[in-house]
Design a protein that fits this description.
Sodium/glucose cotransporter; 19 helices; sodium transport
């Protein structure tokens, strides 16, 4: 019997490889094009690329799974994310785009941190690079866990083989086409995700009878009214993470003009709002559908997969499953590229005894994509890992380590290099302490009561301010770039 779903997935894989080949011919002449697309990415591609690389597999697996278990209380996570993305577009995007171009064309976030103080080898650059490599390896692993679960649940393929299949396709098009391939594939993946997150909950709800529909509406009201205040605030603090996510804010650096960021913001936030609502409703209607039928799911994070296969024609189901792969791959490819850029631009190039050639940097960038992918795959071999838990740890790590520093770098002239180093270190350590050290009497961590991002964000901000006020101020070149950025934005 012809396997329509598998055929759909194979078509999708072929499309991604085609994009990789196209991008390789179009925009990989040097490492600047490979890592940042030559700063010539359109507003619509920037918007959907930022959104798709942000949402990852947790959008179609982790978030629906959370809504399936906890009900409408998960809406506070969505509210926090939308607000965070909105503020990020306003206070980070324009200044970051202009500053990184004026400051000798900084290509990476660690390089931006270093150039903020007119330093080539500032210790903040090395420390930030290490944080990126460590946390992104975990973050990438979360995507591969989602990929393994997808192949295991949807196609009865071994979990490990699913990881290999997922990472192989991502590595091929990322190694071939670099940032342009990642951005173009993100755009297509964003469209697929949007369609899927509208279609699945709508079709599921249309299969409810009158009684099931009434019960569903009542259950939503009940769940919403019983959300604890502390839990709601904890979920909303996810929005603080946006300011420090390298794979998202690097999109702002690559757009063709800072003047087009307003257009990108409108497109991106519209896409994001609809997609998040769709993901939440998928979990809610999925829970109601299971409760009113003889069906069952063993893992709540696979509810989207179950509904796609149970309610749709196999060919359509294949494309809906491709939406999960789209979400997974868009984030993995972005993370691999950012990790590679830090390894090459911030470590290898900065500390090499000789100036490497353009072709050498390009080759090493591609090799580093493969290396990070292999390490992340090894971490992902634990099939019991929760997609949402892995994402939450990495999201908090970046948000606390980099978020305050990005904001202060762009808005506070008195920020010093020592303050920047203190912020990254204190933010990272606070998250690790809060999330992993069993400080409570029962052996649990503090994260069981409150998400680790907020305490890490506050601690990092305090460290930045206190150390900066007591250390030497930035040199004149750093102040010149800071002032030039503000002047250029005022002209616009």
């Amino acid at each position: 019997m012809f396997d329509y779903a598998t055929f759909s997935i194979l078509l999708y894989f072929a499309l991604l490889i085609f994009i990789g080949v196209y991008a390789m011919k179009k925009s990989t002449s040097d490492n600047g094009e490979y890592l940042l697309g030559g700063r010539n990415v359109s507003a619509k591609v920037t918007a959907l690329s930022a959104g798709a690389s942000d949402m990852s597999g947790w959008m179609l697996m982790g978030l629906p799974g959370a809504a399936y278990v906890s009900g409408l209380g998960s809406i506070w996570l969505a509210v926090g994310l939308v607000l965070g993305a909105y503020v990020n577009y306003h206070i980070v995007a324009p200044k970051l785009r202009v500053f990184t171009e004026l400051a000798d064309d900084a290509l990476t976030i660690p390089e931006f941190f270093s150039k903020r103080f007119a330093l080539e080898k500032g210790s903040v650059r090395l420390i930030a690079s290490i944080v990126i490599i460590v946390f992104f390896t975990v973050y990438t692993a979360s995507g591969l866990v989602a990929g393994g679960k997808l192949f295991e649940s949807a196609f009865n393929i071994d979990y490990t083989i699913g990881i290999v299949a997922t990472v192989s396709i991502v590595v091929i098009y990322t190694v071939l086409g670099g940032f342009l391939a990642v951005s173009l594939s993100d755009f297509i993946q964003g469209v697929i995700m949007l369609i899927a997150l509208i279609a699945v909950p709508m079709v599921t709800f249309s299969n409810f009878d009158a009684e099931a529909a009434s019960n569903f509406t009542q259950s939503m009201s009940f769940d919403f009214g019983n959300v604890e205040l502390l839990a709601a605030i904890s979920l909303m603090t996810w929005g603080l993470g946006y300011f420090g996510q390298p794979h998202i804010i690097v999109r702002f650096m690559a757009i063709d003009s800072h003047e087009n960021l307003a257009k990108a913001r409108k497109i991106g936030l519209s896409w994001m709002t609809i997609s998040i609502i769709g993901a939440l409703v998928t979990g809610l209607v999925g829970a109601s559908f299971i409760a009113n039928s003889e069906q069952s799911v063993s893992d709540p994070e696979t509810i989207f997969i179950f509904l796609s296969q149970f309610l749709f024609h196999p060919f359509v189901a294949g494309w809906l499953l491709a939406a999960i792969l789209a979400a997974i791959m868009s984030t993995i490819s972005s993370q691999l590229l950012v990790s590679s850029s830090s390894l090459v631009e911030d470590i290898y190039k900065s500390y090499a005894k000789r100036q490497p050639s353009s072709n050498e940097l390009l080759m090493i960038s591609r090799v580093c994509v493969l290396v990070v992918a292999v390490v992340a795959s090894l971490i992902a071999l634990d099939s019991n890992s929760s997609v949402l838990n892995l994402v939450s740890n990495a999201w908090a790590g970046f948000g606390a380590a980099f978020g305050p520093l990005v904001i202060f770098s762009l808005w506070w002239k008195k920020l010093t290099h020592s303050g920047a180093v203190a912020g990254v270190v204190v933010g990272s350590l606070t998250v690790l302490l809060w999330a992993y050290v069993p400080l409570l009497e029962n052996g649990e961590t503090l994260s069981v009561y409150f998400y680790e991002l907020l305490p890490g964000f506050v601690a990092s901000s305090l460290a930045i301010v206190l150390v900066s006020l007591n250390t030497q101020q930035p040199n004149q070149q750093a102040i010149k770039w800071f002032n030039a950025t503000n002047a250029k934005l005022q002209e616009a």
